[in-house]
Amino acid sequence: MNFYSSLIAQSAHTKSLTTLRAVHTNVIKSGFSYSFLGHKLIDGYIKCGSLAEARKLFDELPSRHIVTWNSMISSHISHGKSKEAVEFYGNMLMEGVLPDAYTFSAISKAFSQLGLIRHGQRAHGLAVVLGLEVLDGFVASALVDMYAKFDKMRDAHLVFRRVLEKDVVLFTALIVGYAQHGLDGEALKIFEDMVNRGVKPNEYTLACILINCGNLGDLVNGQLIHGLVVKSGLESVVASQTSLLTMYSRCNMIEDSIKVFNQLDYANQVTWTSFVVGLVQNGREEVAVSIFREMIRCSISPNPFTLSSILQACSSLAMLEVGEQIHAITMKLGLDGNKYAGAALINLYGKCGNMDKARSVFDVLTELDVVAINSMIYAYAQNGFGHEALELFERLKNMGLVPNGVTFISILLACNNAGLVEEGCQIFASIRNNHNIELTIDHFTCMIDLLGRSRRLEEAAMLIEEVRNPDVVLWRTLLNSCKIHGEVEMAEKVMSKILELAPGDGGTHILLTNLYASAGKWNQVIEMKSTIRDLKLKKSPAMSWVDVDREVHTFMAGDLSHPRSLEIFEMLHGLMKKVKTLGYNPNTRFVLQDLDEEKKISSLYYHSEKLAIAYALWKTIGRTTTIRIFKNLRVCGDCHSWIKFVSLLTGRDIIARDSKRFHHFKGGLCSCKDYW
DNA sequence: GTAGGGTTAG
Fold this sequence. Notes:
InterPro entries: DYW_dom, E2_motif, E_motif, PPR_At4g14850-like_plant, PPR_rpt, TPR-like_helical_dom_sf. This protein has 676 residues and is mostly helical. Helices cover 67% and strands 4% of the residues. Helix 3 runs antiparallel to helix 4, helix 18 runs antiparallel to helix 19 and helix 29 runs antiparallel to helix 30.
């Protein structure tokens, strides 16, 4: 029998299931009783990872020892089969076997994973009755963890308080519990208590507490704990290093974060990811991209966290090509169905105006939640696809998901950018009747823009009255509507409101100047311009750029500095002649200078967006690729009309990103349906 | 012979 016993132990050690099965067969053949070897065989099967065989044997045993029950329970939990573990626990009680400390410390996790609050509370009661709650550190810390996961921090703290001999794990469990509920200050208090009582924090504690300091922006404590990490000899532990660099980056000390990263000798996937995240959050997108590339070179594969973050970097810098490369990596890793990576890709393609790709990413997501759907709705909104956005909004509700504040911002923006005024008003009214959504100033801003742009200025002004503390952005939105509709009188009132809130607000002066200019009130224009001069406000010059064959070309209005100016102007004049025959009519309302009509027309000809498009067309003649141009300010109304005709004339798709949104020109039409 | 806590994302 000892012979079999050691054979079983050996196969368990080498994790050789075949050997174990052979031994098992021989045990049966030899007629040995299971009461001696059964438990050992079960242990062997568990160690070899075959829970099914362990269970089969377990069911055949004539009597079962508490240790075997515990092994069955904990092995099922660690294999993600918490439901089965709970069944074992129930059967165990039914057979009259009393749980011990091992049982409780294991089963609590199953309850928290399955959200079985009642079960957990009942087990807790039993642990109290059996005197195991506060005497055994293992039980107590498992209970603290369980209550924390049930969002019952009070109960967690109560269990914690009752334990006489608090050890490091118990402290850490409570600290982590507070941390995961965003109660970083509480976590820090417990940590101080722990240190004062002479309990030495270990790597788990320090990893967590550093993040707390980061979330609090508490650099002083963060640095103190950095010292503690060094003193505890845990500086080389990956988790400490990861938390250290996260702490520094969350305290906006990205240079220190970089220093920590450069000094570590081994970085795992989480470390690399944390670093990338920190860089992106601190506005170091380019560095993040090169770190991401280095990570790939080091054969560390990115996870959804990494991808989400680096794609965010691509979005904010509109690095479409890098983003596409990362999309390819995402697919290669089989993570294109992941909602985090997917949402980030949708944001990227949405921002870059590639709606087909955004939608195809969305369609392969294996897991949909409100945030993932929000990103698709927002992408539609940004690009003027109002009906598609509304359709998705319906689908979200039909799926039984609850729209949140972001959903409503996105859907209102969609209505706004597509000119769906009635739909927008209806949705806004429905939000007001829905007490679960708190209306923010952003919702109002969106509505005021929607009403104002459709010339319902009185209604827009009435809506502002309802906002408790209207801000500059809100007033400026209304001012913009006044400008569009040439409402000088209201504009002046709005202007004075803005200057009350933000004296010397540059954008406002410029907006009003443009309004006076388009209304032909040149005296006021001159007045405004001198005010602007006095305020030393500079209007940033209009600029457009275009990427042709990986080379970026920048243009300013009337700019002759481009080496291919001659070809550009030739192309431009050729286009002008042809688009005029198609119906293009220069609209001098958009020339905001006091010039005679002829000069106004020729100044329109050389707007930066026209130059950029003319260059791209000249350079890519004979191709059918989409032309993408960028403008630092909003696209001009005359250029908008002109580009539509150019897209019709040349059959080329043109995508223009301005400071606020994308315009897709195709076959003489624009995705914004002339409403922006 | 079995058991407790950690670092990264929209």
